[in-house]
Amino acid sequence: MNENLQIRTFKKTGHIEVICGSMFSGKTEELIRRIRRAEIARQRVIVFKPKIDDRYSEFEIVSHNEQSYPSVVVEDASEIPEKSFDVEVIGIDEAQFFDNNLIQICQNLADSGRRVIVAGLDQDYRAMPFEPMPQLLSVAEYITKTLAVCVVCGAPANRTQRNSDSENKILVGAKDHYEARCRLHHVINSEKFTETI
After folding, report:
1. Which residues are known to be catalytic?
2. How far is CA 112 from the centre of its chain?
3. Which residue from 15, 32, 46, 75 lies 20 to 30 Å from 58 (Cα-Cα)?
4. Nearest-angstrom CA–CA distance, 24 and 58
């Protein structure tokens, strides 16, 4: 045997992937697509969603175009590690509904060799960074920014327009409360949008 031949073994490297964008931009659809591809590769997967998000289904993540995938509902991100000890790929939907402990949890899971795929809004309805997404974006190895279509002009939309009077940062809803808007047509105040063209 050649003494100069060295066989190197590497620990399987984990990583964090973040899928972010406005509402109606296909974030959950992309998460489901990646999870299904991991299943095709015979990887063990699990998907989590926050308990607060019960818009379409209690025990599935569901995209706005009605694609779905079974999920485990958690009250807090601290429940994720104990429920994912024997899986290789971990999906987390609606990350903006978790608190900042999600950042370290994702880091720990990736450090242990797992692929962590996180989807969520990167901006709130005021177009301000939506915690904990900015920090997740900074530690992720892979980032996908999805764009919707502005309902006013048809341009690419990266903002979420709230069409209700609530000023709470978190208001769970879909088309009943929100629209996708471009930078030009996004209105921050709670008054009804009036066309400016």
Report:
1. 94
2. 21
3. 15
4. 20
Beta bridge partners of 1: none
Q: Tens digits of per-residue pLDDT, 142-156?
A: 999 999 999 999 999
Residue that wins the pLDDT comparison between 193 and 29: 29
pTM listed for this prediction: 0.85
Alpha-helix runs per DSSP H in 44-196: 80-83, 101-111, 133-139
What are 147-189's pLDDT values in tens digits? 999 999 999 999 999 886 656 555 554 456 789 999 999 998 6
Kind and range of the H or E element at 146?
Answer: strand 142-146
Task: Pull the structure tokens for residue 128.
Answer: 């301000």
Rounded Cα gap, residues 171 and 192, in angstroms = 17
